[in-house]
Amino acid sequence: MSTFQAPKGTYDLTPPRSATFLAVREAISAPLRDSGYGYIETPGFENVELFARGVGESTDIVTKEMYTLTTKGGDQLALRPEGTASVLRAALEANLHKAGNLPVKLWYSGSYYRYERPQAGRYRHFSQVGAEAIGTEDPALDAELIILADQAYRSLGLRRFRILLNSLGDKECRPVYREALQTFLRDLDLDEETRRRIEINPLRVLDDKRADVQKQLTDAPKLRDYLCDACKAYHEEVRALLTAAGVAFEDDEKLVRGLDYYTRTTFEFVHDGLGSQSAVGGGGRYDGLSEMIGGPELPSVGWALGVDRTVLALEAESVELDLPATTSVYAVPLGEEARRVLFGVVTELRRAGIAADFAFGGRGLKGAMKSANRSGARYTLVAGERDLAEGVVQLKDMESGEQSAVPLAEAAAELAKRLG
Ligand code: AMP
Questions:
Q1: Does the keyword Aminoacyl-tRNA synthetase apply (predicted)?
Q2: Are residues 391 and 278 located together in one domain of the fold?
């Protein structure tokens, strides 16, 4: 241990567990890459205003959870708390929407930062894989994204997750509902902060996790009863497409999510093995966001899946991913001369695309074989002075335990053959 530790609310990814994180990122992004989504990467920090406007002034993320800083040059920046606003900003800046190819479909993977109260599954640094489809209003696009997330979770072997679905209406019907909800909420027994929230963003009150608040919300007006015909038809089409694809979902009219920019389709993926931090991913349609950050009208939809919680979900379901062995061949030299020769063979193997590792540090046979075992290598190459004098190396199959002498000059080719 050094004098230092990882900052509060963060943790390090170290082998072997880190391999699962890589596999999860890969599994979530694979269906996107196969569906026309291109990779995008944006900076880890942005102008703080982008999030204030894009995520919403009244959200917890903006009011309480952003890591903000002032640079020496006087710029007000924030570590990114989420991906959508940045991705949309970048797409607009690069004029991707003007290439005549809508929707612009993008995926991303990276670190996000929120100054939250740390607990199991909730960290101050976490990682997400996300997808955004920008510039098109089409229920099939909403359905596509939900289906691809479902496919990703299933490909990982997850089963105990559920999809919650709702529609938040649009700029026609939501204001009418908002007013009805405000009238209802103003009569309830609520604390000062929640009262303020009624005036700024009343839908967020529905999201309140406290039991005494939830109890008072039983008779709150339902958004479903206020949806305009266009929103209703849109939502029915998303539901029908999901059903046709065999993707099960639950209608959840209380689902509003913590970000201001959502319109129409909203959804969340929850996992039943995670306790209170049960959301493994979520997203929805954000038709007004582009205009909120100074862009043209670009109706869009997207999601972000949390990598950390997906790994926790795998652990909760005791799913062991079938991770490929990282090392196929492990070389154990005995003596100076063998070190030079086997190091050459390892280099040759690696250039031929075979994963190979080497017992560094001039270790004895016993210790080196222990490392060979731990590496998971299928074969070990052992050579001492006598072998070299005879022009051979000992090739050991770690599964069968069989060992045979192979001419040194043929060792790499023989291994390539055996490993297919
Ligand atoms: P959100 O942007 O809040 O909808 O988050 C999308 C997903 O990111 C969530 O479903 C979580 O899986 C993950 N996530 C969000 N905040 C955190 C956090 N503080 N710690 C770990 N994962 C998080």
A1: yes
A2: no
Atom 11 of ligand 1, residue of closest alpha carbon: 306
Among the residue ranges 74-78, 199-203, 347-351, 390-394, the one predicted with the least confidence is 199-203
pLDDT given at position 74: 97
Burial label, 361 (beta-carbon count in 10 A; 0-12, 13-18, 19+):
exposed
Are 301 and 365 in the same domain?
A: no
Please report the atom of ligand 1 found closest to the CA of residue 282. 4
Name the binding residues for L-histidine: 82-84, 114, 128, 132, 257, 261-262
| Tally of domains within the chain | 2
Q: Is 128 in the pocket of ligand 1 (CB under 6 A)?
A: yes
Q: Is the domain of 399 the same as that of 311? A: no
250 shares its domain with 374:
no
Specify the residue with its C-alpha closest to ligand 1, atom 15.
Answer: 306
Q: Same domain, yes or no, for 236 and 98?
A: yes
Q: Which atom of ligand 1 lies nearest, measured to the CA of 124? A: 19
Q: Nearest-CA neighbor of 295 among 137, 75, 134, 109?
A: 134
For residues 376-392, average pLDDT: 96
Averaged pLDDT of the chain: 94
Q: Which of 248, 281, 316 is the last residue of a domain?
A: 316
User: SS3 of 67, please?
Assistant: coil
Q: Which of 114, 128, 379 is nearest to 369 (CA)?
A: 379
Other Cβ atoms within 10 Å of 195 Cβ, number: 13
Range of the domain at 390: 329-419
Q: What is the CATH number of the domain that holds 388?
A: 3.40.50.800
Regarding whether 338 and 234 lie in a shared domain, the answer is: no
Q: What is the DSSP string of 269-328?
A: EEETTSTT--EEEEEEE-TTHHHHTT-----EEEEEEEHHHHHHHHHHTT----PPPS-S
pLDDT of the residue at 325:
76
End position of a domain, from candidates 258, 281, 316: 316
Q: Is 145 inside a domain boundary?
A: yes
In a domain, 249, yes or no: yes
Ligand 1 atom nearest to 116, measured from its CA: 19
89 in contact with ligand 1, CB cutoff 6 A: no
Domain contains 193: no
| Mean pLDDT on 301-309 | 98
Render pLDDT for 107-129 as a digit per residue (tens, 0 to 9). 999 999 999 999 999 999 999 99
Query: Which of 60, 61, 277, 278 best tests ligand 1's pocket when mutated (most atoms within 8 Å of CB)?
Result: 277
